[in-house]
Amino acid sequence: MSRTAVIAGEGLLAPAVVGALDGPAVYALDGLNPLVQAAPFRLERLVPFLDKLVADGIEQVVFAGAIRRPRLEPDLFDPQTLQIVPRILMAMQTGDDAALREVLAVFEESGLRVLSVDQILPELVPQAGDSGG
Asked: What CATH number does residue 115 fall under?
């Protein structure tokens, strides 16, 4: 079985995903207050964080919960992460969805498989033909 990391956001989704997995590693952006215990990481040090995940045997990652756009501290960027900042900033100009897609691409380029929540908890996603009422 592949080792999984949960990138926890705020709200009830992260605890549900963590509870559905067998001993995941749990992380959250520094400054967020997820409803699960999570080790903090900073976007300014994203590449070293990804290297740590891979070194720790993490093979897949799932993002669960609401994430506010973090405030970035320019002085905290490491040289490797600084190299990917222009592409993330360009995506951010297009909108939050494009920025998230670019961050997911960076995770995948690091060798991590990005899972969707419905791959962990399919019962949370309505099936075709289900009514919402």
From this structure: 3.40.50.20
